[in-house]
Amino acid sequence: MQAMRVLVTRAKTQARRTAARLEALGHDVVEAPLLEIVPVDFALPPRSFDGVVITSANAVAAPAASAPLHRLPVFAMGEASAAAARAAGFADVEAIRAAGAAALYADLGARPKLAGARLLHLTGRDRTPAEVPEALSVEAVTAYAAARRDLDPAAATALRAGRIDWLLTYSQRSAAILTAELARLGINRARLSLATLGPLPEPSMTGWRRVVRAARPDEDALFAAAGLLCEKGAETRGSGAYDG
After folding, report:
1. CA distance 101 to 53
2. Global pTM?
3. Torsion of Cα atoms, 197 then 201 then 205 then 210, to 10°
4. What is the full per-residue pLDDT of the chain (244 aa) written as tens digits?
5. Which of 39, 84, 162, 188 could tie 57 with a disulfide, CB 3.0–4.6 Å?
6. Rounded to whole angstroms, how far apart are CA atoms 94 and 53?
7. How many helices (H) and strands (E) does the chain have?
């Protein structure tokens, strides 16, 4: 496997974890967080719930805020979110492989045992509305905010100099911020290759040298899509085409 030069745009703590994995695989990494995660104090709705939905590990960044919910089962999107929920004090946690909140809701809504269930979704301040199946009742509470950050100057210099083989984004918002930052700084993305964990917003889909999307909503699949592992995780298309 050829060593690659990778730009990681995740929030700081997550970026360091991802960088450590990539470095262990022999790659060179530039950390350039485009989001800063800030826990939000929230008040629980004055009603009972049958379970908690978590679609990001950031949702339990402030464990004390979610403590009254620890007795409830948690339905977490992906292993990372599930691990964060367990570390925050939740005991009954199920990791579900789903590409986004809508897919997670659909999975839960198809379960006979959850028919009529009232679920509390601990979510971010900037979230994409998702369709809720008729079998479920879902109420969202903002548990964290993701503040935008400018692209690090060192990262911008590396991009201009052609010293980055792959840019990694993990969310629609970070992809949109990255696209806007490249435009602001006058960096031509037609020479850059992007690997994304999920669907991209329309303005971020085209204009790249190459775009690949992970075959599954997890980091291993993202690494594989970009050729950072010793397996093929997604089909790729050149000329800025979006694989999705």
Report:
1. 9
2. 0.71
3. -20
4. 688 999 999 888 888 889 999 999 999 999 999 988 888 888 888 888 999 999 888 888 776 667 788 899 999 998 888 988 998 889 899 999 887 888 899 999 999 999 999 999 998 887 778 888 989 899 998 888 888 899 999 999 999 999 999 999 988 888 889 999 999 999 999 999 999 987 776 767 788 999 999 888 788 889 999 999 865 444 443 322 222 2
5. 84
6. 10
7. 7, 12
